[in-house]
Amino acid sequence: MAAVQTEVERAIVTIVTCFFEHAGEEGKKETLTQGEFNCLVAKELPHLMKDVSLEDKLKELDVNQDQELKFNEYWRLIGELAKGAKKEIKAKKK
Ligand SMILES: [Ca+2]
Ligand SMILES: [Ca+2]
């Protein structure tokens, strides 16, 4: 990857790096357990996930129902949060 990155490029790398940092803490290296997920949210998404039950959220995102989140399952959360951000930006513009 090129050394000079734009803000958006860095943001993408940050999201991916953050997943794998937390996924590597216990159990399988490439999936998030409930504990790892809770830790990731507490550390990286405290404002956006304030009033969310993390048990329910993990179940909702866990497409293959193995009680862990692989990257594409976690990515659905990023999509949801992006949609939320879009709504806020649009609301501000009005
Ligand atoms: Ca793990
Ligand atoms: Ca899963």
TrEMBL record:
Matching InterPro entries: EF-hand-dom_pair (IPR011992), S100_Ca-bd_sub (IPR013787)
Leader peptide range in chain numbering: none
Highest taxon of the lineage: Eukaryota
Domain S100/CaBP-9k-type calcium binding subdomain: 8-50
Name of the protein: S100/CaBP-9k-type calcium binding subdomain domain-containing protein
Species name: Staurois parvus
